[in-house]
Amino acid sequence: MSNDPTTPVPVPSAVRDSAFRPEPGDRDLAPQFVLPLVVRIERAAPPPRTDALETAARAVLVMLADERSTGDGEWARAMRDWQDARIRKVVRRARGAEWRRAGALPGITVTGKTAEVRVFPPVPLDGWPKDLARLQVSGTDLDDPEPPVGADPAAPVLWTNPGLEMSAGKAMAQAGHGAQLAWWELSDDERAAWRDAGFPLSVRAADPARWTGLTTGGLPVVRDAGFTEIAPGSCTVVADHPALRR
To answer: What whole-number distance in Å separates Cα of residue 141 and Cα of residue 195?
Structure first.
């Protein structure tokens, strides 16, 4: 959340503007870091897809808000280095002993309705801890047993592109990007209010008829760099926070 409970990590506007753009830029010249997220997927009881996406987005916000991530906190340098480079997030899956080993590493576990996601401080792109590096990226395909209820218009909504097919892991990372863009755009008071409320949010596929309007309405838009699964420049998520609506 902040350098203290109310002050966010400063992010220059030039950095915000290029956070997820596919074009090369100064961010590519910096050392590259990645924010690891691990979702718990037990064979007998995998979480619903939407719950996993929402829990991953909240996990990113919790990491940004944690006092260890700001000021002189123990994770602050890694968080600054990560935000100065490409904003990469990688979601891996774990179960059983793998999940327990991941839980022993420094990080934060965030729980949704049934989903569990553990987020870790950023690590160098080629410097993952052994117990995280061995986890699989593939196999994060999840389904919703029944369609999610409609989004609460009074709360933040991360709208996903209805025309893109993404694995659950990819979509979790994109939802995290959207939550982060919204966080950067909010005022100190708005961040504090969102944090104090427990970071309520929903992730929903947008109505195809509304998608163009959402992407051109002034809300934060994630444009994927195209490292995996989808074409560079694809608009994946629109961060529709009530405080950002014009």
So the answer is: 29
Give every CB contact of residue 4 below 8 A, 6+ residues apart in sequence.
67, 70, 71
Structure tokens at 223: 């444009």
Instruction: Report the 3 state secondary structure along 149-203.
Output: CCCCCCCCEEEECCCCCCCHHHHHHHHHHHHHHHHHHCCHHHHHHHHHCCCCCEE
Q: How far apart are the C-alpha atoms of 174 and 223, rounded to whole Å?
A: 9
pLDDT in tens, 203-237: 999 999 999 999 999 999 999 776 667 777 889 99
* Per-position DSSP letters for the chain, written without gaps between them: --SBTTBPPP--HHHHHTTT-SS--GGGGSPPEEEEEEEE--TT-PPPHHHHHHHHHHHHHHHHHSGGGSTT-TTHHHHHHHHHS--EEEEEEE-HHHHHHHHTSS-EEEE-SS-EEEE---EETT---HHHHTSBSS------SSPPPPP-TTS-EEEEPTT----HHHHHHHHHHHHHHHHHHS-HHHHHHHHHTT---EEEEPPHHHHHHHHTTTS-EEE---SSSS-TT-EEEEEE-GGG--
Q: Are 223 and 48 in contact (CB under 8 A)?
A: no
Query: What is the rounded CA–CA span in Å between residue 56 and residue 190?
Result: 21
Give the pair of three-digit tokens for residue 245.
Answer: 């609506």
Q: Is the pTM of this model over 0.85?
A: yes
pLDDT value at position 234? 87
